[in-house]
Design a protein that fits this description.
By secondary structure, this protein is mainly alpha-helical. It has helices at 18-25, 38-43, 46-65, 77-88, 101-113, 141-150, 189-202, 207-210, 223-227, 233-246, 253-274, 296-303, 310-322, 327-340, 345-355, 361-372, 387-394, 399-404, 424-430, 445-466; strands at 3-8, 29-36, 71-74, 92-96, 116-119.
Length: 469
């Protein structure tokens, strides 16, 4: 009677799980184990820990329905797994491969000591599979996406018919944590599938434009579920490709755009895998030594949604409340921090990781470097979002701003994105006195734009001079 271990990391699901499938197919008994790795638990934000722990409870209930039991352990992964093998006589450990620098170091250590088989599941295609003809990785998205799309599509989802997880009943486990559920993102596989189905039925056809409007629910809001593998990349890609085929000709652009967003996720995982140094520095060496401002007061105003720019403040307050931010908002606030305040993009990257439920090293780092103009396939440094124009375009009636910045709730439409234009009478009528109820802008956008262009140009010229023979 063969026993194996299913080592759960970022794959809190039963459906479409290659590691679990391999474990069930190759053994009589499967031991699902999640190890509370102290280093990872320490690095994760409270929002993510709560979402993870709620997800573990949901996963345990699902495993029990299939005849098994989720085992919780605490400690160094190699030691925990070695003890579990000694306790149970397990012959093999199955796990989904992860690509972050810490995960790869951890997995190299474990596999050097224990029998582990890693399965591709975090992404549809392993980063090593999407490379140029010469074997070098892509650093530009468009050719990466073409190569990605040329690879075979995900196979059929595993059938649950006759699917059982037989776990010995006498294996000791730490208690499951008492998780505090997010009111915005209920954890679990069933919720992930519900959201995917709703999005594909109700929103994906208009996703190309709808994804940009902050006042609408035009995005999938699936990023937390991808982050912890409550929904697999294979499932999402398979579903959206089926939707593309089902939509009439001329109405497929929205679904195709969402597929590209899923490929962006894989692109950033590939960049982190092949260029792990991006965790600590700009991908583009020309912009590794920009003369950033040391502006703690401005940074604090940005963090707390008190910059005086309503669209920036609304987005930052959404982050603090929900542990999530609309993607258009992420670009706006990132551009504001880097290009208007000239504060190091890494300050923003760290702040996001402290608060985002969907905080993922690859995606977060890639997004920040893209907006800052310092990364691979980045927006050029001279592309600087005007926060007022962005607000007028993507929150035209100010609904998003009024929801998250209640001080401005009664401000007239004409001033909602530029409250500093109100005269004393308008301020009194709206109940919003500038500088008292709501701050005046902490920076002039036009002046800040010129300052940033000069700083980036100087860094680029210095690097070019230093690297010219």
């Amino acid at each position: 009677m063969k026993t194996v271990i299913w080592w759960i990391r970022r794959d809190l699901r039963v459906n479409d799980n290659p590691a679990l499938k391999a474990a069930v197919q190759n053994a009589d008994f499967v031991i699902p184990v999640f190890n509370r790795d102290a280093r990872l638990m320490r690095l994760n934000a409270p929002n993510r820990i709560a979402f993870l722990e709620a997800g573990l409870r949901d996963l345990d209930a699902r495993i029990q329905q299939l005849g098994g039991k989720l085992i919780i352990r605490n400690g160094n992964p190699d030691q925990v797994l070695d003890r579990l093998i000694q306790e149970t006589g397990a012959e093999v450990i199955y796990a989904e491969e992860d690509y972050s620098p810490y995960a790869r170091k951890r997995d190299d250590l474990v596999s050097s000591r224990l029998p582990v088989r890693f399965m591709v599941g975090l992404t549809v295609h392993h980063p090593r599979a999407v490379v140029k003809g010469d074997g070098f990785p892509y650093t530009v998205f468009t050719p990466f996406s073409k190569a990605w799309k040329a690879l075979p599509s995900p196979g059929k989802e595993q059938s649950e018919e006759g699917f059982r997880i037989n776990t010995p009943s006498d294996i000791p486990s730490e208690p499951l944590p008492q998780a505090l559920e997010s009111k915005y993102f209920p954890a679990g596989e069933a919720e992930a599938y519900r959201r995917l189905e709703w999005f594909l039925e109700q929103k994906v056809a208009h996703y190309q434009d709808g994804r940009n409007f902050l006042n609408e629910e035009g995005t999938s809001s699936l990023s937390p579920y991808f982050r912890f593998g409550m929904l697999s990349a294979n499932t999402a890609v398979r579903a959206v490709r089926a939707k593309i085929q089902a939509l009439p000709a001329g109405m497929q652009k929205g679904a195709e755009t969402w597929l590209n967003e899923l490929i962006w996720r894989e692109f950033y995982q590939s960049i982190l895998y092949h260029f792990p140094q991006v965790r600590d520095e700009a991908f583009n060496p020309a912009y590794q030594n920009i003369a950033w401002r040391d502006a703690p007061a401005d940074l604090e105003a940005w963090k707390n949604g008190l910059t005086g720019y309503p669209i920036v403040d609304a987005s930052m307050r959404q982050l603090l409340e929900m542990g999530w931010m609309h993607n258009r908002g992420r670009m706006i606030v990132a551009s504001f921090l880097v290009k208007d305040l000239l504060v190091n993009w890494q300050e923003g990257e760290r702040w996001f990781m402290r608060h985002l439920i969907d905080g993922d090293l690859a995606a977060n780092n890639g997004g920040w470097q893209w907006t800052a103009g310092v990364g691979t396939d980045a927006a050029p440094y001279f592309r600087i979002f005007n926060p007022v124009l962005q607000a007028k375009k993507f929150d035209p009636r100010g609904e998003f701003v009024r929801r998250w910045v209640p001080e401005l709730r009664n401000v007239k439409d004409g001033f909602i994105h530029e409250p500093w234009l109100m005269d004393a009478a308008d301020q009194s009528a709206s109940g919003c006195r500038l500088g008292e109820d709501y701050p005046a802008p902490i920076v002039d956008h036009s002046e800040a734009r010129q300052r940033t262009l000069a700083a980036f140009q100087a860094a680029k010229l210095f690097w070019q001079a230093d690297h010219t023979e």
